[in-house]
Write a structure and sequence with these properties.
With about 130 residues, this protein is α+β, with helices and mostly antiparallel strands. The chain folds into two domains: about 1-30; about 55-125, Alpha-Beta Plaits. It contains three helices and four strands. The protein has helices spanning about 1-30, 70-80, 105-115, and strands spanning about 55-65, 85-90, 95-100, 120-125. Strands 2-3-1-4 form a four-stranded antiparallel sheet. It is rod-shaped and about 80 Å long.
Length: about 130
């Protein structure tokens, strides 16, 4: 009987040590599921062509994104800049696509804001339609 109780106690402790790190990691990432319908759509509504006269579409290489929570944090930071039309981050590809007004937003300031979040915004280049 004592052996059975010791074995149960041992298994309970092993289970706790296995489960706790998994739960901590899951909550730390704040992982939210991606919806298939939104995968290729911009985050914000498409503004009229009249407003987007000086629009540039830029791809930023970003290191350090591990989950959709990271994507959301980066998108929220980018969207705070006046002159940003759309932003879409992808942790699997390690990129963010930003459509902005080049006369209102300096891409270097956007990269600095991403770096302040703890990610590493590397090179960027303009995309052509």
């Amino acid at each position: 009987m004592i052996l059975v109780l010791k074995t149960l106690n041992y298994l309970t402790m092993k289970f706790k040590f296995f489960l706790i790190p998994i739960l901590v990691f899951a909550f730390a990432c704040q992982n939210t599921p991606k919806e298939k319908s939104q995968e290729n759509e911009p985050v914000t509504e498409e503004p009229s062509q009249e407003v987007m006269v000086n629009a540039q579409k830029i791809e930023l290489q970003i290191e350090g994104m591990t989950c959709t929570g990271c994507e959301n944090a980066i998108q929220k930071t980018i969207d705070e800049f006046e002159g940003v039309y759309t932003s879409k981050a992808d942790h699997e590809k390690g990129i963010a696509i930003v459509e902005l007004d080049s006369t209102k937003v300096d891409i270097l300031k956007v990269k600095d804001a991403i770096n302040e979040l703890g990610y590493e915004a590397k090179e960027h280049h303009m995309l052509t339609e």
